[in-house]
Specification:
By secondary structure, the protein is mainly beta. It has 4 helices and 20 strands. The chain has one domain: Porin. The chain is globular and about 65 Å long.
Length: 406
Amino acid sequence: MAPKFKNISNFLLVCIILCTLNTYIFCQKGKTIDISNLPYYNFGKGVGLTSPDSLFQFNIRFRLQNRITYINNEDQDIAFDGQIRRLRLRFDGFVGDPKFLYVLQLSFAPGDVGEIEEGSNLNIIRDAVVYYRHNIHWNFGFGQTKLPGNRQRVNSSGALQLSDRSITNSRFNIDRDFGIFINHINEYENAFSWNIKSAISTGDGRNFTKSPDNGLAYTGKIEIMPLGKFQRDGIYFEGDLVREKTPKLMVSGAYHINQKAKRQAGVLGELLYEARDLKSVLLDALLKYKGLALSASYMSRQTSDPVTANGEGQESIVYEGNGYDVQPSYLFLNHWEVIGRYSHLSPNQSVASHYPVQDQYTFGLTKYIWEHAFKLQLEATLDHLKYLDQSEKSNVYVRFQIEMGI
């Protein structure tokens, strides 16, 4: 955090303490002030409040993403799109004992909530999960949160270098679900480190309350850091903002099977007319060193029969196939960063008549004012699509986005 923000935090802390004391004095009128009854405030990741007896802690954070996009799609008129892409509140802390943690995240932007449909839920809740942290190696979760999937999805959207995740992530990520989460963590400063993360979940996705079934989803993931852990949990944000003094490398692999999935992408997408078993493989690599960052990923999904129909000529189709991303970047000492990304999507022959082969090229320029919490982003993207009949189409967009939060 830059020094000016530390000064602001200290100033706000003093103001809160003074206001609390003044209110207490006004209410008590002549009674002795008992400082031990006052809560403790802190400013770190958001604004925090801890009870005097340390029986609960409450942290609050917010973030927003405002963007405007110039869109030039082939065979369509030029268009401009301005929107609040994300607007979120996050609460976390503990109750009773620091071993019992909670995380709650709510979303309010139209792109997060989605269209309101009759008979469907208002999709505000993103995370609502309780953790038991047994020790530094083991933690257990119960509730709704992100499955241990691909690296880019596990990272917060507020910690991305570009305004959105890749098209490969959009097709194959396994996102959020309700279930049981078990994590075994073994991270060390400059020694071989490894994590195993797993989940057993409903397989239906977040806030799904339609007909239940007897199919579950099983996810397992291993993360290996042969050169030691990243500074400040650097695997959870893109770009080398901390300028790692020694090379840091992470490779990971996840496998996900969703039995009797009712949606096109298992936990995401439109409803299928028949349930399907979906199998996903998600591989990642990440390297950071002195401002340089390089990430790469491979993802795939398979099923026995991707096409489902309702007998009236309507179809709902699973996207099966594979894709990969490569994303290099460099952060200059003046906190400007240049980013490139290449993504490729290739559907299997079974669905090639419904989905094109897709290549996407993106160049981005980011100015970090306060790390990922306050940044300006400018990017240009070329999207090339090739269809089964050999016809081709190219689309272009240019986007400016402001991200701000605490």
